[in-house]
User: What shape does this take?
Amino acid sequence: MKGFLKAMLVMSAFLYAPVAIAAENWVEVTVNSVGDRILIDQNSIQRNNNEVRYWEYQDKRQSRNATTDVVGDQPVYGMMIYRSVDCVSGSSRMQRLVLFNQNREVIRRINYEDSGGVSQPMTGSSTETVTQYVCGLQ
Assistant: This one.
């Protein structure tokens, strides 16, 4: 299963990355309170002044249901997110989203680009941990 997950992540990253990625380097950054693992592809991290863009993968321990207009009634077990983060304010914007089912098959791909809402992570959240991680890398 790990090999299949890795292949899916690499394939999706190539399909959605703004530039070709030479090799993937997924690193687990945190595990949240319900056991979901959050990983970052360190090789996807791109810096432009105070902005950082990167691929994140959320491996869901239990299914999470997204809104029905996004995936119908299919449970979501994984999400690959391309984010942009303002490291000064800590705010982030979801640029692209790939949703996976229990068999790690793609349910849906969404390209938000600049229409994705800007959000501020809650203090102590896994999103805040990830933001601090990508902004702290030099």
